[in-house]
Structures are given as structure tokens and as C-alpha cells.
Design a protein that fits this description.
The chain is of the alpha/beta class and 293 residues long. The protein is built from 10 helices and 15 strands. About 4% of the residues have low confidence.
Length: 293
């Protein structure tokens, strides 16, 4: 019995890295009966006698896991957005941040294509950069066409397992190609009619980049909050979470309740109005969703 980490999953095959070798494995039939799916990033025990016909015997307990993208044991999440083509979308950014925060994974924000916007647009992006920095997030503006910008990213990735996620067309594959040119990941231009990129990544795979492992994942543009309850949402907004203990009523949703410390902080400019508006929008979305049976 050998041990290793799943680094790629394609069409029912799991590629397990063990030392310097990669073994092609299938999952045990009992996994299907127990509704267990091995994920990229899982640490596993497997039969490694034949490098091309191995079987995963057990999956070790996970530190965390994401559903979309399906990956486990992640140290940090790099959320890639773009300053242009597609335009920076703060609502979508906050959706990604909430999803990552709900899994207790550290988010890092990269905003690409900063060289493609004018000074007025750049000032707007910098205002958002300042906002997220004040909350406590790491955020960096980059151009994947500038080698100097890419060189400065390695210290974010070194010795970490990162998931890279973001809207299609923001430059995730270009970013990884810049960090590791040998990957030669396929990139597509933005669809001018739709204003978004084509999906170029079809499976999840851990690839070497910047001295660490990065999960290159399928692009997606919508996120729901099926696994987040209304009373958990505030914990996914750090600036709201740290103030909710000062609300008069325990279990305050910071919406219509009186003497709410969060609403007071919004009025006093200590919590950004746009972030609070997004919180209320997500809260309404969670409260109005249909129950699952």
C-alpha cells in the first residue's frame, strides 16, 4: 500500500503523485455505494504495484473542500478578476470572497489587465484595492504581459496549495502560463458578442507554478450559496463579523433590527456601503431560496 496526493482527475481516472512518480488509479467500487468521490488534492492510500492500473483504497480526512471547483486540502484561494474585458465586477468579487470565506480558506485577490485601462478607470480600481486592503485582504494589480509583475507573485504561491478561480476570460490560464511557460495551457480571446471568455479548462489539475501547486479549474461566472445559512453569512464578511458582537440583539441579521452596530458602522463610513449592500443582497438570496429535500 502506497500513499500520495491526487493531482488530476479525468474521466474516472485519478492521477496520484507519490514521490517522483505518478500513478493512474481508479476509485474503489465501494466509494460509489457510499457516495464518496475522490477529489483533486486528496491524500490517499492506493495499490501502486502497477503504475497504470492502481486502485485508491482510502481517502484521508480533508482539511477543507470546495464543491465548485471540486478540490480538497487547499491552503489559499487566488481569486482572479480583471480590470477590463470583462470589466471588474465588485458584486461577483464579493460572491467569490463569501464562498471562500465560508470554507475557512484564505483568499488572495489578483486583478489582471491593469495595463488595458485609462487613468480614470485605474483610479476606480485602486479605490476597490484600498477598500479590500482595509478589510484585511491581500490584493495585487498585475499585467500578465509584464514579466516583472509575474516575478512578484511567486512569494504568494511558494510552498502553498492554491486554488485559482474567477470569471471566464479574466486571464487565469495566461497567468499560469506566465508563471510556468511549460504548461502551455490553452487560452481563448474574449467573445466580443458576449463580453466573456470561452471555457478553456475542462478538468481540475494541480500544476506547479511559483514554487507551489495551483489548481487550474474550469471557469464559471455564477455562484450560489446553497451551503451557507443566513446566520452564517455575516461571518463571511470580516468587517461585519468583527462588529456583530456589539449589536443589541443576539442573532442580529443587520437588516431591520434596531440598535445594530453594523448598520451604525455603515452610516459612519467604517463599513463600506457597497459591501453592506452586497451582504443584504446575498441575505435576501439565501432567505428566498427554495428548500432542498
Amino acid at each position: 500500500m502506497a500513499e500520495g496526493r491526487i493531482t488530476k482527475a479525468v474521466s474516472g481516472f485519478y492521477y496520484v503523485q507519490s514521490g517522483d512518480n505518478v500513478f493512474q488509479c481508479r476509485g474503489r467500487g465501494v466509494f460509489r455505494k457510499q457516495n464518496i468521490t475522490p477529489l483533486v488534492g486528496d491524500f490517499v492510500e492506493f495499490d501502486g504495484d502497477n503504475p497504470e492500473e492502481g486502485y485508491i483504497r482510502s481517502i484521508k480526512p480533508r482539511e477543507n473542500q470546495l464543491i465548485r471547483p471540486p478540490v480538497a486540502n487547499v491552503d489559499q484561494a487566488i481569486i482572479v478578476s480583471s480590470a477590463a474585458m470583462p470589466d471588474f465586477n465588485p458584486l461577483l468579487m464579493d460572491r467569490f470572497l463569501v464562498m471562500i470565506e465560508s470554507k475557512d480558506i484564505e483568499p488572495i485577490i489578483f486583478i489582471t489587465k491593469s495595463d488595458l485601462i485609462n487613468q480614470t478607470e485605474l483610479k476606480s480600481i485602486i479605490r476597490y484595492q484600498t477598500l479590500y486592503e482595509q478589510i484585511g485582504y491581500k490584493i495585487k494589480l498585475i499585467s500578465v504581459r509584464q514579466p516583472k509583475d509575474l516575478e512578484g507573485l511567486s512569494h504568494y504561491l511558494s510552498d502553498q496549495v492554491s486554488v485559482i478561480a474567477g470569471q471566464s476570460g479574466v486571464g487565469k490560464s495566461s497567468l499560469l502560463n506566465g508563471l510556468n511557460p511549460s504548461l502551455q495551457l490553452k487560452t481563448d480571446d474574449i467573445s466580443t458578442s458576449l463580453g466573456r471568455g470561452k471555457h478553456t479548462t475542462r478538468h481540475v489539475e494541480l500544476v506547479e507554478a511559483g514554487g507551489g501547486l495551483v489548481a487550474d479549474t474550469p471557469g464559471f461566472s455564477t455562484l450560489d450559496f446553497q451551503d451557507i445559512t443566513a446566520d452564517e453569512l455575516a461571518d463571511c464578511f470580516p468587517e461585519i463579523s468583527e462588529r456583530q458582537g456589539d449589536c443589541k440583539f443576539r442573532g442580529c441579521f443587520h437588516n431591520k433590527e434596531p440598535k445594530c452596530a453594523v448598520k451604525q458602522a455603515v452610516e459612519e463610513g467604517e463599513v463600506a456601503k457597497i459591501r453592506y449592500e452586497h451582504y443584504l443582497r446575498f441575505l435576501d438570496e439565501i432567505n428566498s431560496r427554495k428548500p432542498r429535500y
